[in-house]
């Protein structure tokens, strides 16, 4: 794999993926999404239709696309660094640390839903597959795609149907919690907002653990695609 110049088509696809991620998350910037339902936040039927359309078209799709591009970027970066004899592993690790730093700043001081930390940490494990056989990578990729499914099924058996059905807000303590969180983000001190954002960030990162296998599987799928493409 020898790439000597920037690939404009990949930049276009990357831009589309980022725009899609922005569309999916834009509504989540304006209210505490961890504590309330978007459909309840916007009661008008037109708003609810837009929310359902975004969920159907974009939820989970664009982040998968971006994950694939991240893995492809890893392969291109390694190939270029190897050709220039610049120590590809060391350079890639340095880039991941910078990505992690940006993610931490974004997560703690801007928005709790940051995903860059997840990408940077998962990126370190890509290095273990850099010289693996395509068959091995393919087995890992398919296996990891099954992990979230198994986790949800297991949670369904352990917790029961309540795991899949949202409890009604009326008469539920969650309504009080939601009101408190909204009040903190609206009128709280800087310290209170920071603590609430930190707590929400921890919950979000735990949630990201459920889709981390899917993200990493998309990373690995690039290696398989490039191998089979090279056979043509």
Structure, explained:
With 232 residues, the protein is an all-alpha fold. 76% of the residues lie in helices and 0% in strands. The chain is built from nine helices and no strands. Helix 1 packs antiparallel against helix 4 (61-83). The longest helix has 42 residues, at 190-231. The radius of gyration is 20 Å and the shape is globular. Mean pLDDT is 79; it is low at 161-171.
Task: Give the radius of gyration.
Answer: 20 Å
State the low-pLDDT regions, or none. 161-171
Straight-line N-to-C gap: 14 Å
Major sheet, described briefly? Answer: none
N-to-C order of helices and strands = HHHHHHHHH
Key attributes of the depicted protein:
mainly alpha; 9 helices; 76% helix
Structure summarized in a few sentences:
With 232 residues, the chain is mainly alpha-helical. The chain is 76% helix and 0% strand. It is built from nine helices and no strands.
SSE order and pairing:
Blueprint: H1 8-26, H2 38-41, H3 45-58, H4 61-83, H5 88-109, H6 116-126, H7 134-159, H8 173-187, H9 190-231
Helix pairs in contact: 1-4, 4-5, 4-9, 5-6, 6-9, 7-9
């Amino acid at each position: 794999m020898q790439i000597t110049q920037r690939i404009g088509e990949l930049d276009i696809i990357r831009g589309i993926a980022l725009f899609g991620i922005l569309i999916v998350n834009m509504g989540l910037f304006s209210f505490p999404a961890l504590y309330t339902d978007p459909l309840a936040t916007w009661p008008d039927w037109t708003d609810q239709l837009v929310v359902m359309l975004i969920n159907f078209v974009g939820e989970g799709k664009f982040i998968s696309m971006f994950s694939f591009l991240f893995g492809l970027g890893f392969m291109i970066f390694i190939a270029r660094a190897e050709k220039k004899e610049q120590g590809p592993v060391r350079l890639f690790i340095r880039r991941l640390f910078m990505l992690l730093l940006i993610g931490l700043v974004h997560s703690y001081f801007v928005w709790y839903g940051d995903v860059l930390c997840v990408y940077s940490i998962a990126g370190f494990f890509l290095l273990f597959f850099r010289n693996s056989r395509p068959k091995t990578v393919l087995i890992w990729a398919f296996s990891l795609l099954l992990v979230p499914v198994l986790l949800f099924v297991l949670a369904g058996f352990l917790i029961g149907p309540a795991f899949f059905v949202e409890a009604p807000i009326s008469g539920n303590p969650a309504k009080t919690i939601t009101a408190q969180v909204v009040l903190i983000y609206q009128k709280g001190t800087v310290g209170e907002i920071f603590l609430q954002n930190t707590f929400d960030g921890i919950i979000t990162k735990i949630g990201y653990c459920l889709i981390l296998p899917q993200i990493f599987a998309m990373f690995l799928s690039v290696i398989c695609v490039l191998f089979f493409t090279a056979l043509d």
